[in-house]
Amino acid sequence: MDLCNLSVIRSLMADAGISFRKEYGQNFLTNRIIPEDIADNCTDERDSLIIEIGPGIGCLTAELASRYKRVVAIEIDRGLIPILDKTLAEFDNVTVINADVMKTDLNAIIQEYGDGMPVSVCANLPYYITTPILMYLLESGIKFSSITVMVQNEVASRLVAPPGSSDYGAITAVIGYYGEVRKLFRVSAGSFVPMPKVDSAVVRIDLYREPRYIPKSERLFKNTIKAAFEMRRKTLLNALSAKLGYPKELISEAIAATGHHENIRGERLSTADFVRLSDYLYDNSK
After folding, report:
1. What DSSP string runs through 145-190?
2. Terminus of the chain with fewer CB atoms < 10 Å: N or C?
3. Using CA atoms, how far apart are residues 111 and 280, in angstroms rounded to an integer?
4. Which of 248, 244, 236, 239 is CA-nearest to residue 217?
5. H-helix segments, 20-145
6. Is the distance from CB of 65 to CB of 71 less than 8 angstroms?
7. What is the pLDDT of residues 151-178, one digit of tens each?
């Protein structure tokens, strides 16, 4: 069964009496090369548990199941579950869970199905909830090997942007705390039904096996990044002074400790710079 064939997709949905649900940001792939490429690049470890978010009718799920030892697919739309039962019936290494991933105990899933295997995440994320899901995964404390996601192309550009570029933002600096991001390939809007208004791209985050950065206060580190980008047009000195409440003299000293001038803007600081900056504030504000 070609799960990327438009006629097959429409037939399956018609048989189940359902239609595309805009509130879930549903866009199903119709280019069969894309799920193959995503599955090939999901992780380097074939003996893995893959947690898939949003399997839809299962076109990517089937490719993952053909390559990796175990797949757990989490689908929020109850109406798609009977379709997935049908399209994935040939695979005995797939479990489909009807749930909202943001309310799902991923540790419990790993304990039940992981059997000590490396764990990676693979997802075609709805545009409207990309950042919340990424942060939920990264802040879960789970040692994923990698997180491979298809997102809006504009978001992908932000995730991989270097410091100082116009696309570099708070999400870039924060994700750099957890791992290294690379853009794998672009996916045209015409590869989906319904067709979205913009192109997508697939990115992979390889999480650090051991922490690369250990800020003295993770909360202050993240708050410093947030403050720097909430007032992007202001200098870093003025933005942090307005949002964090520390004296300007202390903030100026902290910026200097990172090797930068106080008139610099936050978008020019790397993840490592933000760690040094927040550590200085933490050490000298007591």
Report:
1. SEEEEEEEHHHHHHHTPPTTSTT--HHHHHHHHHEEEEEEEEE-GG
2. C
3. 39
4. 244
5. 33-41, 59-67, 81-87, 106-113, 130-138
6. yes
7. 999 999 999 999 999 999 999 999 999 9
Number of H helices, E strands in the chain: 12, 9
**Whether the Cβ atoms of residue 18 and residue 79 lie closer than 8 Å to each other:** yes
Strands 179-187 and 146-152 come out as unpaired
Q: Distance between CA atoms of 268 and 166, rounded to whole angstroms?
A: 10
0.85 exceeded by the pTM?
yes
Going by the DSSP 8-state scheme, the letter that residue 89 receives in this structure is T
Tokens at residue 213, please?
Answer: 């950065």
Closest listed residue to residue 224, CA positions, set 212, 236, 233, 235:
236
Q: Which of 118, 169, 179, 170 is nearest to 149 (CA)?
A: 179
User: Taking the CB of residue 21, how many other CB atoms lie within 10 A of it?
Assistant: 12
Q: How far is CA 83 from CA 58, 104, 245, in A?
A: 8, 22, 54
